[in-house]
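Quick board copy: two proteins, each given as sequence then tokens.
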Amino acid sequence: MLSLTAVQLGAFPLNDDTVSPGFLGFGVVVALGVATVFLIRSMNKQMRKIQAPREAELIQQEWERAEAEKAAKAGGPDAAKAGSPDAKAPPADGA
């Protein structure tokens, strides 16, 4: 005796015209696309919040640290001036 599945399969032959993902497959693809768009927007928002130091700022900080160490080792009147804003700036080329 034939089962119900065999009868159903016999009634509708499987080929490229009768087999398709349908509305469920379409809905899943659309949902994944929408979720991807929202995730990308969120990632871009988070990336804009990152405050990475620029190379010139790093060079300036290293120079200030070196000047403060020199002044501390010298122990002279420059030791008080090392942290003041009127202290000499590093060369413009960053060397």
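And the next:
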Amino acid sequence: MDVSFEDVLLIALNGAFLLILSIQDLKHRTISLIPVILLGIVNAGLCVATGRGLKDVILGVIPGVFAIMLSLGTRGKLGLGDGLVLLVSGLVFDWNRVLSVWLLALVLSALFGLVLILMKKANIKTALPFVPFLFTGFAALEIAERVKI
């Protein structure tokens, strides 16, 4: 599979921002809007530079919009920042990729939470930072795609 310069740029920038946000989420149990806004601006610019169509952008942001609605509907039990991260990722990645990352992150966080519960380190109400799971899902999908798993 040939990877274009634009693809490398998209993957590297989004991966770097997700890593920074993951560290912040792990340390503070919250993420700052500044890096999310910066990622949104970068992704909007890349979206225009790569000539991404409006239909693709709209479809790409749907998982993020849905996650934001879930956050608002649960009064913050699901993080608003997580939905915003998915939203800005959808500016440059297709809906299938964004949804796949989100679903993989949900499965990974559930498994991690289950392990913590079994080890008696957490209970069902323990909140876990979610962006590290988004980063892990993003990285796992990129690696799997490259090695054709």
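Board note added afterward: The helical segments are 5-28, 33-49, 54-73, 80-89, 95-118, 131-147.
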